Amino acid sequence: MYGKDDFELRHAPHDLDRDFPASGAGRPETTPAISVSNLNKTYDSGFQALRDIDLEVHRGEIFALLGPNGAGKTTLISIICGLVNATSGRVLVEGHDNFSAYREARSRVALVPQELTTESFETVWATVSFSRGLFGKPPNPDHIEKVLRDLSLWDKRNNKIMTLSGGMKRRLLIAKALSHEPRVLFLDEPTAGVDVDLRHGMWEVVRHLRETGVTVILTTHYIEEAEEMADRVGVINKGSLVVVEEKNELMRKLGGKRLTLQLSEPLERIPEGLDGRNLDLAADGYELTYTYDSNGEGTDIAALLTELGEAGIHFTDLHTEQSSLEDIFVSLVRERQ
């Protein structure tokens, strides 16, 4: 499923036949879906993949975990899902320790991997039903039918997996993950390799899952995906969480605005009197960009335009734009390189 450089299979420190508390016993609904405390992971090679991770994911939210390749996203998810051992720290899934109460914690989570690895000669119905049985759940045809209908797979229930399109196989992976009725669903690059129309369809599926009470945690390289769906965003880089914030608040705090002026004549350089105005001049001299925080001080655009006019700088057009989540992500990562 994953490269062995990133994962080490969780060996058997857990006795899966132990008796654990009944599902949800004594745990209030305010308990976070996921609680990670002081989590560290160092591999035998000495590489430290995670550094002092503290994170809480609220029940019923869509949480997007962003980061460049090798940042630690997959390792973090793998530890939470019980596939990799942490070096130190603690993980709770709806209040259940995923080490000492592995059976209870693991039954509450499901992971949809990025790779489309499925049993090609199995039927859709058979493979989803089998996945449910792996968690010791009794047969429940009604639940399997509901999952397949919700994911628009019902008409394909008797088809062999090898006959499905890439988008259908992606939905099938989600169906397999939902077969045992998890409360927390991890989606690792859920729309990788999927065309634009199917990607938007997948977004609707994820929103529907959230509406049914499932907590969704996704990693994605499509920043617009996180911007479209996530309630909160976490950015991880070099094994450390750079920021965790509500998406709208993050964009308010860090999402500066840009005023771009198309000049009537090219400039060789920004005049000395304007060098403190946070202006950038394009290489060809015809475009001047002013970056500012619309909620901060010193953003009097009218005064800036007056100063430009007094400096003999005239423009033929102007437009403004808000920084996107992608701009913020790139900025945060660059700051910590």
How would you describe what is shown here?
It is a single chain. This protein folds into two domains: 34-251, P-loop containing nucleotide triphosphate hydrolases (Rossmann fold); 255-335, Alpha-Beta Plaits (2-Layer Sandwich). It contains ten helices and 14 strands. The chain has helices spanning 73-80, 102-107, 124-134, 141-150, 166-178, 196-211, 223-229, 247-254, 301-310, 325-335; strands spanning 34-42, 48-57, 62-66, 88-93, 96-97, 109-112, 184-188, 215-219, 232-237, 240-246, 257-263, 279-281, 287-292, 315-322. Strands 6-7-8-3-9-10 form a six-stranded mixed β-sheet, sandwiched between helices. Strand 7, helix 6 (196-211) and strand 8 form a beta-alpha-beta unit. Helix 3 (124-134) runs parallel beside helix 5 (166-178). The longest helix has 16 residues, at 196-211. The radius of gyration is 25 Å and the shape is elongated.
Q: Summarize the main sheet.
A: 6 strands, mixed
Question: Which H/E pattern describes the elements?
Answer: EEEHEEHEHHHEHEHEEHEEEHEH
Mean pLDDT: 80
The CATH topology of the largest domain comes to Rossmann fold
Q: Write down the domain tally.
A: 2
Assign the CATH class of the largest domain. Answer: Alpha Beta
Record field, number of beta strands: 14
What is the SS-derived class? alpha/beta
Low-confidence region ranges: 1-28
Rough outline: elongated
